[in-house]
Write a structure and sequence with these properties.
Layout: E1 3-6, H1 12-23, H2 31-39, E2 49-54, E3 58-67, E4 78-86, H3 95-109, E5 114-117, H4 135-143, E6 147-158, H5 166-177, E7 181-184, H6 190-200, H7 203-215, H8 219-222, E8 224-227, E9 233-239, E10 249-254, H9 263-277, E11 282-285, H10 293-300, E12 304-315
Parallel strand pairs: 4-5
Antiparallel strand pairs: 1-2, 2-3, 3-4, 5-12, 6-11, 6-12, 7-8, 8-9, 9-10
C-alpha cells in the first residue's frame, strides 16, 4: 500500500469534505464553506494545498497553508496553517509529518520565516486548536517544534430566553441625553466606519465590513454605529458578516477613549435585540481572551465559553 502527495484535482472538494466528516465529526464543514475559506481566500496559492492519497483508501489527508499579506496585522513573512486532517485509519504512518514538511517548505519558498496555527484573518475556520477535542493535534504540533501560545475563547448566548435589561435601557437613555446616537449605518457612514475599524482595531475588520456591504444588501442595517455628540464614530457592532451564519456576532469595538461609558454594553445589547427581532435563536463568536474586559462584558450579558482554542507557532 502506498501514499502519494499532490495538489487539487477535479472531485477533491467532495472527498475533502467527506474526510473532515469522518475525522473531525464535531467540526464538519460543507463543500461550499470549504471552497469559500480555502479555494477562494484572497491569497490562495494552489501549491499551498497538499493532498495525501492512499492506494487503498483514497484521499486520506490534506493540509493548507497560506502567507499573510501586508493588509492585515501580520507581516508578509508570516505563514498560516488554516486547516488540515489525516484519516484515523492511516494515522501514525508519517502522513501528517509529510504534509507538514511539504506545506511549510512552500511557505518558506514564499518568504515566510514563521508559521502559526491560528485564525488567519482573511479566511479562517477556527482560531487555533481545541486541545480538549483534539489533543492529538496539539501533541503532533509540539513534537514538530511548535510552541503553544494564546488561548482564544469561543462563546455562545441563547437568545430564546433573552430580553434587554432595564438597566441597559436606562443606560441608553442616559447616553442619548448626553448627545450620543446609536443608529444603523447609512451609506454615508461607511467610509468613516470602515476606516475606524481598520485603523483602531484591525485592518482585516475594515475589509470584513467593506466586503459584507458589497455582497449583502442588508449589511448596512446590521451594522450598528455609536456616534459621539460631536458626530464622529466611536464604536460599532454587527453580526452575520462572516460567511453564511446570521447568528455569528461581531466584529465589535469601542474607541479606547470611550471605554467605561457603557457604549460597549449598549452596542452589544442593541445588536442582540436586532438579531432576536430577526428570529435568531442564539449569538456566538469564536475568539476573545477570557481575561479581557470584553470577556467580562460578554459574561455579564449571559455568554458562556463553549470551547477554547490554543494557538501554536514555529520559526521556519
Amino acid at each position: 500500500m502506498s501514499t502519494t502527495y499532490r495538489h487539487l484535482a477535479a472531485g477533491d472538494l467532495d472527498a475533502l469534505t467527506a474526510l473532515l466528516t469522518r475525522a473531525v465529526p464535531r467540526d464538519v464543514i460543507s463543500a461550499r464553506r470549504l471552497a469559500q475559506n480555502l479555494l477562494l481566500e484572497p491569497r490562495h496559492d494552489p501549491r499551498g494545498l497538499v493532498i495525501a492519497e492512499h492506494s487503498e483508501h483514497g484521499v486520506v489527508g490534506f493540509l493548507y497553508g497560506t502567507v499573510a499579506d501586508g493588509g492585515i496585522p501580520a507581516t508578509p513573512r508570516t505563514g498560516y496553517l488554516t486547516i488540515g486532517v489525516v484519516d484515523p485509519v492511516v494515522q501514525r504512518r508519517g502522513i501528517g509529518s509529510e504534509l507538514l514538511d511539504r506545506v511549510t517548505a512552500h511557505l518558506a519558498e514564499c518568504g515566510a520565516t514563521r508559521v502559526i496555527v491560528a485564525g488567519y484573518p482573511q479566511a479562517y475556520f477556527w482560531p487555533g486548536v481545541d486541545l480538549e477535542e483534539n489533543p492529538g493535534t496539539g501533541a503532533f504540533l509540539t513534537a514538530h517544534g511548535f510552541t503553544p501560545g494564546a488561548v482564544a475563547a469561543a462563546m455562545h448566548r441563547d437568545l430564546d430566553a433573552w430580553a434587554m435589561e432595564d438597566r441597559v435601557r436606562d443606560l441608553v437613555a442616559t447616553r442619548e441625553a448626553e448627545g450620543f446616537r446609536f443608529t444603523s449605518a447609512a451609506l454615508e457612514d461607511l467610509p468613516e466606519t470602515i476606516a475606524f475599524a481598520r485603523e483602531r482595531f484591525a485592518p482585516d475588520w475594515g475589509e470584513v465590513l467593506r466586503t459584507a456591504v458589497l455582497h449583502r444588501p442588508d449589511a448596512t442595517a446590521a451594522l450598528l454605529i455609536a456616534h459621539h455628540p460631536d458626530g464622529h464614530v466611536v464604536g460599532f457592532a454587527t453580526s452575520g458578516v462572516y460567511g453564511d451564519s446570521p447568528e455569528r456576532f461581531g466584529p465589535f469595538g469601542v474607541d479606547e477613549s470611550q471605554r467605561g461609558t457603557g457604549l460597549g454594553r449598549i452596542l452589544l445589547n442593541l445588536t442582540l435585540q436586532r438579531m432576536r427581532s430577526e428570529a435568531a435563536h442564539s449569538a456566538w463568536f469564536l475568539w476573545t481572551g477570557e481575561q479581557t474586559p470584553a470577556a467580562s462584558l460578554y459574561r455579564s450579558t449571559g455568554f458562556t465559553t463553549v470551547r477554547r482554542f490554543t494557538t501554536f507557532s514555529r520559526d521556519l
